[in-house]
Every structure is written in structure tokens, then in C-alpha cells.
């Protein structure tokens, strides 16, 4: 088992992006008892087997690390873009409210009390519909933003979860090939590392806030959110 302990340390060091729970599951798999005596295998065969399959395991780990980081990076980029759009809309609402306040502030310059009252009444009457639109659209924007952020998070989870599953599956398949090599000797036919189609690097969610700016208060008239499918392919085990 000392060979497996050594190999485990190398592979876990290669997959630095792997979450702790995934490491735990791999630990349990890789450290469980094998059904043959490693000590009975000749040093030459052991060396050849590890020379053959260690690079494959490192390749699987490197692929996992790259794919996992791609899932996270894409989700972060989507979130940044969405937040930027929301900030623009926030500025629009702030400008509209500032305009409303200015209409009332202008009334303060009137020294005549009656004129002041009439000015406030006129400003309030003209702004009722605008205030209602702002209240309605701001609430709609908040709901749309929350839904879009959740969609991004869900797609990120699908992407990282698929990447983790592929990593566990491909690592296990490669270990099976290593076991076979240690049992029966180095294969005479060239062997390729098992590969699983990676999850699509999260073309994640495409979220669009469509704003109707025809009125004084911008109106959110449509919100579209489309999540890219995550492709999961079965493992192709290399023949020995």
C-alpha cells in the first residue's frame, strides 16, 4: 500500500483546485484495500506501471483544475456583468428621484406663501405617476436581479459538480488500469488515460434586462435568462 500512499500524495497535490469534500471521497476510494498484494509485485513491473500511469493521473488532475477554475471564472464574469447593468439602472432611478426632488426644491424660492403651496401642489400632481412607476419598476428590477444571480449560481454548481464527477470517474478508471498493470504486467498495447467530456465551461447564464425608456421613469419590460446546458458524457475506459 505504500505505493498507493505515495501516488495519492502526488495526485492530490496536482489537483489544488479540488474542494475538501471531493478530496475526502477520493481518499476513501484510493486508500481502501486492494484485492492483491502490492508487495508481491516485482520492483521492475511496479516502476514501469507507475511510470506509465502517473502521468495519466497528473493529466486528469490538471484537466480537472483547469475546468473547475473555468466554471468559477465564467460565473464571476457573468455576475460582474450583471451587477454592472444593475448599477446603470440604479443610476437612472437615482436621477429620476433627484429630478422629482428638484421640482419641489424650486418651490422654496417663492416668498409668497400661496404661491409656495400652489407650486407644491402642482409638482406633486405631476409626479404621482412617475413615483408609482419608479416604485413598480424598482421592485421588478430587484426581483429580476435576484433571479438572474440565482441562475448564475445554479449553472456554476452544475458546471463544477459535473467537473468533479468527471474527475472522480476518470481517476478511478485510471487506478483500475494501474491495478491491472500491477496484477498482470505492463500492457503490450498502448494505453490512453480515461477521459470524460468536460462540462461546457459555463457559457452559463445570459441575462438581459430590457428597459423601456420612453417614459420619464424607465420601465423593465422584459428579463431573459438562458442557462447553457451542461454536457455529461460517459467515461471511455482505455483498453489494456
UniProtKB/TrEMBL annotation:
Keyword Signal appears in the UniProt entry: yes
Keywords associated with the record: Signal
InterPro entries hit by this protein: TsetseEP (IPR007931)
UniProt cross-references to Pfam families, sorted A to Z: DUF725 (PF05267)
Segment forming the signal sequence: 1-17
Protein TsetseEP domain: residues covered: 46-164
Top-rank lineage group of the source organism: Eukaryota
Protein name: Protein TsetseEP domain-containing protein
Organism encoding this protein: Drosophila willistoni
